[in-house]
Amino acid sequence: MSVFNNLPTPPAAAKKPVTDTRHGITRTDDYAWLRAGNWQAMFKDTSILDPEIRSYLEAENAYMEAAMADTKELQGQLFAEMKGRIKEDDSSIPMKDGLFAYGSAFVTGGEQPRYFRIPRDGNPKDETIRELLLDGDKEAVGKDYFRLSGIDHTSDHAFGIWGYDDKGSEYYTLRIRDLATKQDLDDVLENTAGGGVWAPDGESFFYTLQDENHRPSKVFHHIVGQPQSSDRLVYEEKDPGFFMGVGGSLLDDFIFIDIHDHETSEYRILSTKDLTAEPVLVAEREEGVEYSMTEGGDVFYILTNADGAKDFKIVEAPVSAPGKANWKDLVPHEPGRLILNHMAFARHLVWLERREGLPVIMIRDRTSGEEHSIAFAEEAYSLGLQGAAEYDTDVIRFSYSSMTTPSQLFDYNMATRERILLKTQEVPSGHKPEDYVTRRVFAEAHDGETVPVTLLYRKDTKLDGSAPCLLYGYGAYGITIPAGFNTNCLSLADRGFVYAIAHIRGGKDKGFSWYEDGKMEKKVNTFKDFISAADHLVKEGFTAYDRIIAEGGSAGGMLMGAVANMAPEKFAGIIAAVPFVDVLNTMLDDTLPLTPPEWPEWGNPIESEEEYRWIAAYSPYDNVEKKPYPPIIALSGLTDPRVTYWEPTKWIARLRATAPEAGPFLLKTNMAAGHGGKSGRFQRLEEIAFEYAYAIKVAGKV
């Protein structure tokens, strides 16, 4: 029996067929018209959206509201619970950097962070010594959407660069703030990627500009007080398949220009002794070879997969000659030990690695070569390595949590191995870890592999197949979903849900090969792994097929579309957030922001018929058929540059037209946000409360 009753007639998108022939294969797209021809300009000014498209999106929103009307009270309850678990006036532990320690905080009722500093050795709990540098709530007044990119101070602590996006389109405006007067200078830099790197003298900085197709393609050098139009172009990346970013070193000796796609990287470095020089190439890009750099005084430490080091190794090279010919292995490649990132300090080298799906922080004494680890004993947990803001230090900072253990922040002395607990995440409404169970189980995949699945549920939940389950998955770009503390999912656990994360192929949960086995021609493994996770949970009595609500976002939204096509009978409902479901059309459109950089992940269907056929075989939009689909909701943002709004819009339209007896199919478009949804911390909770209310409704618990 459907939980959606007395629904109004759903919107029916007009069919305006457009045909496309590639490699001798002709496809017809009835809903291509939903892609705004002026999308680049519309991302900056949504008022120019085609009225027909706007009218259709608004009709879909109205239908969605009608379908979810009976959950309004539940949404309010969920929001109140989630908000009640957040310490409203929370504050970070300031990080020491020279004369000051810098931190951020929220005020009660505030949506945006406030950035502050205190004297270096001041008491972090003494709010009277805080010097407020930037008030996010004040800057956000009058804006429907507002997201800060943070604030970065000069070495002499006199000025700070801060950035904001007020459209959700991820075009950031940069301003320069005098940290003494708290006033912004006249400099205004538009269409940036969101941050900058100061030169040591504090009189200029480097930043990345987004082009008209939303690609960070140029690095500029800006001199304070000069107009943006006079900024010097430092480097331009002309290959649209590569992203670019700019960063600095703790010693302020170098500016790093990082150029990369999903499998190949290249660095160019600029000595801060001559800011007008041309950047120097470190190692020429070589397809499939990745590397990243950190400075260690007279050497660079380079994390790379060169020479067949699939799970990465760390090499060192002299600063005077950092080319690949001079790379010398320091931390050798060890199959099954995936090195994720690294950082260097005056006396120690630090890296985060993953073994058997669990993270470990490793410390190496740079003089003796002695190594030791920071690890924990729980069955599943998450570590975050923050490091330090200073080079000449023995103290680094890291965080720890598990699905049941609130986040803990530690300072760790690498020389004495002393661990100091700085802060434990407060849950104001209360949290008893002993009331919950965290487990890691392993599902057998179609090809004999084992898929880790992390579970959270209340200790008193009956594991007899009667519990509803929210099964979350992502599985792309090598991203690992951590088994960390999440106060929001407690609202589901407290209602008898099993909350599950499927660590499927496409991530790096079990090493780099786990990623390789879930991309390109092997992408279907990602989808089959997720279905195997659902099968295992049913087999072991954690839930039943008619109680599983699947959820994924972005590339995980593609996963949702694919499993809906492959095994609709195994899910009670599906939540697809900003879902990348129109894969083939997007990968055929090289004007879109992420298309050329995405080809190494999905394939290039423009150039290759084989890769065209791979994608066509699973692309959710292209494989919609008349099937018994469960209820599906798609969530999107009008100004999303990553997964454009028309992808979920077209998908829902095709689902509804092709399988009219199934569903229902709902579309919720945020008309004032992009890929990440609403920007405020409580506004975001409203969206999560909506998603959870949908899951609870579909599970028949409203």
TrEMBL record:
InterPro entries: AB_hydrolase_fold, Pept_S9_AS, Pept_S9A_N, Peptidase_S9_cat, Peptidase_S9A, Serine_Peptidase_S9A. It comes from the Bacteria. Residues 1-21 are annotated as: Disordered. Keywords: Hydrolase, Protease, Serine protease. It holds the Pfam family Peptidase_S9_N. Residues 10-424 form the Peptidase S9A N-terminal domain. Residues 485-700 form the Peptidase S9 prolyl oligopeptidase catalytic domain. Signal peptide: none annotated. Belongs to the peptidase S9A family. This is S9 family peptidase. The lineage of its organism: Bacteria, Pseudomonadati, Pseudomonadota, Alphaproteobacteria, Hyphomicrobiales.
